[in-house]
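Section 4.2 – Deliverable D4.2 (structural model, holo form)

The reporting period included a commitment to supply a predicted holo structure for the target in complex with adenosine-5'-diphosphate. Inputs used:
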Amino acid sequence: MRFQAIQTAQSRKISKVKTDVSDIPSLFGSNVFGPDAMKEYMSKDALKAVNEAAKTGSSIQRDIAQKIADGMKQWALEKGATSFSHWFQPLTGLTAEKHDSFYEVWGGKAIEKFSAGSLVQQEPDASSLPSGGLRNTFEARGYTAWDPSSPAFIMEKASGKTLCIPTIFVSYHGEALDYKAPLLKTMALLNKAATQVCNYFDKNVNNVSASLGIEQEYFLVDKALYDARPDLVMTGRTVFGHAPARGQQMDDHYFGAIPSRVFNFMYDLELESMKLGIPLRTRHNEVAPGQYECAPMFEDINLAVDHNQLLMDLMEEVGRKHGFKSLLHEKPFAGINGSGKHNNWSLITNTGVNLLSPGSNPNSNLQFLTFFINTIKAFHDSAPVLRASIASASNDHRLGANEAPPAIMSAFIGSTLTKVLNDFKTNNKTSKDPADNEVITIHNLPEILKDNTDRNRTSPFAFTGNKFEFRAVGSSENCGRPMIALNAAVANQLLEFKQDVDALIAKKKKTEDAIFEVLKGYLIASEKALFEGNGYSEEWAEEAEKRGLENVKNSVESLDSYLSEIANTIFVKNGIFTKEELHARYEIKLEDYIKKIQIEGRIMDELVYTHILPPSLQYQKTLADTINSMLSSGATKASTHGLSELLNEISNHTNSLKMATDLMVNERKLANTIADTKQKAHAYCNKVKASFDEIRFHADKLEHLIDDDLWKLPKYREILFVR
Ligand code: ADP
Ligand code: MG
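Output (structure tokens):
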């Protein structure tokens, strides 16, 4: 299979992507029921209702919903859709669909029908999707409900088109079973909290929304080679594989010329994304061989998350067309860089002001510093929850692996802002003398920041001029999860800020002075989370420990933070999750961890017995036979010494491999008998997974030692360099 796969990969024809470049403007959003299509297919009152609902969350009357459904159906039918589906994001991290036909059979005739009810709400059987114990089996019903703030779209497959309606997914009792419902709640809370704070500076602001731009890293490997690696197919990563002679040490891949076949894939992906209104803009090679990145223009956070989920689905689809498999796993290959997903996050007002962009006068700079320092304080206080919000078995391989930020949550702000904050902190200004404003160092911020190109790739949370970049998010993650945590943390912080400032105002402080005083306190309370140096270094780990910052390297431990006091404050107190919902999410993530390690353990076990031991033993026998026949035809012991050594080496590895694998299997069986989810996850982490390295060590040695012709699994050099 390995050699066949190599041949298939090498003989692939490069499939050209057909487009008329002049068509691109009309291509953008052509499969989206966006503003233009809505205007054309819906009555004025229906349009108004949708826009209102999208903006304010107001409910839509039944008769109006029917008008919307009619318009949407008309548009979809003209586009050639035959079915519709509610499209949602269950806690598997993937997207889910349940398709229904537009056609119903009446009196032997197919009649098209799409009711208001089907638009607004559906009832997929939820019993096979994770609920973390929120749902008893006798209440297996789950409900999907339309999210009018994310437009419907048409998903095109080779043999049919489906109208997809973005929805939230909740249980019979209304508990959230997805990422969208809580994300929408955090958006509303953040809007309320940030608008109040904005009103200290500008009474015209009546809406604040979070913006998000997501940089997606991924690997592309040939589909045939992928299929010949059962570990990749089963787990998304290679559990075995000797390091290739050349990895990424030549530094020749990053920003290098994009190979033609890959280029065609990217181009096709961009066109398909365009149809769905996903504004992809950037494409380039990443650091590791076979690794790439793409990024869209930033959008409203809800839409950006939906679009990233769609993008990941498209990568799969488009990859297939080009004979590729795109790998979204955080660490598909040991020893070379893994993949992340940088979440660029900011806050934008209805008046068009980016609140994390320094302004052009002292007042707007104070507004900037208000949101800047509050974000840092929120990050500092909620760091363990933010860490938990990106915890997964797959991201564990990446965090702190000298290529991605460590598990220590620190923020980088650059030298200019570090100086500004230091001045800010030591400035003992009172408002007695209004002219004092002039001496506040913040008044010429924009000039200093204009060309601020400070970058720090080693920080998990970096300020990059007009936004924060949460860089620790894993490449396969649903960004809703970390963004729920970040939104909630910042919203909670802004609510607190408003209270603290108002308390001082009530004591007759001037507003500006109150703001200064409170911010100064926040800065002092949270500055230990600020770090400008090399996040990959040993020294930082030591320094962070001295500062009392957590460094939780494994997910199982990190997930405990979902049950912490701070999680309770930002989520439960603010009505984002109930205690039960939060606990359910904790359980689901632990279960997810267990299952992933269990599958990895099983595939390791299987591959050792079926793919690694057989060729190794065959070669071992060949060697033994050779030595024996040499000796029996009169060769001296000394002349077979080297061969005997090799034979010994190989048989040591085959023997140890078998033993180590059996030990792991035993640990797995033991772990499976544990009823308590947390204890079981701990066993999977500390016993089962802990034994993987030893198994891998022997397997990889064997790959290195035995006859290449016998080896069954495609090697790293083949998967990463054949294209
Ligand atoms: P890099 O960090 O690699 O230099 P860019 O500066 O191009 O990349 O930005 C990366 C992402 O950040 C893009 O998706 C971009 O649209 C997004 N971005 C830019 N400004 C904002 C903003 N104000 N809010 C959220 N995302 C933003
Ligand atoms: Mg970036």
